[in-house]
Every structure is written in structure tokens, then in C-alpha cells.
Please model this.
Amino acid sequence: MAYTMDTTMGDILSNPEAVKVLDELMPGASTNPMMKMAKGFSLGKISKTPAAKVSVDQVQQLIDALNAKLG
Model:
């Protein structure tokens, strides 16, 4: 599976290996209480949501790391 800005957070959270990559880059992200609400959001939408406090660059780094390790 190729990860993109259209990938949902739910797709990442359902894959234990992807969760490891997420938590390596953003420690504690997978256990953040906001993740329950964000499961249906695409990575692109998350990067544009001010409350997420995650930049487009950070999301792109996550996508690149996921594709390098799991793609």
C-alpha cells in the first residue's frame, strides 16, 4: 500500500507497523485521545486542521517514512 495525503489515520492505526513509524516521528500520537475523532480524516485534512498542530511538512515526512519502511 502506498501512503499518500489521501490515506486516512484509521488506515495507519489499523497497521501495527505503521503505528510504530507514526510514534517514532510523533511520539505519543497513536495514543492521543484526539485520534478516535481523527480516524476518518485523511492525512491531508489533518495537516490543514489547526487543532491537530501538525504541519504539512510533518505529514509529508510521515508519508515518506511509511512508504520507505512499509511501501
The two ends are 6 Å apart (CA to CA).
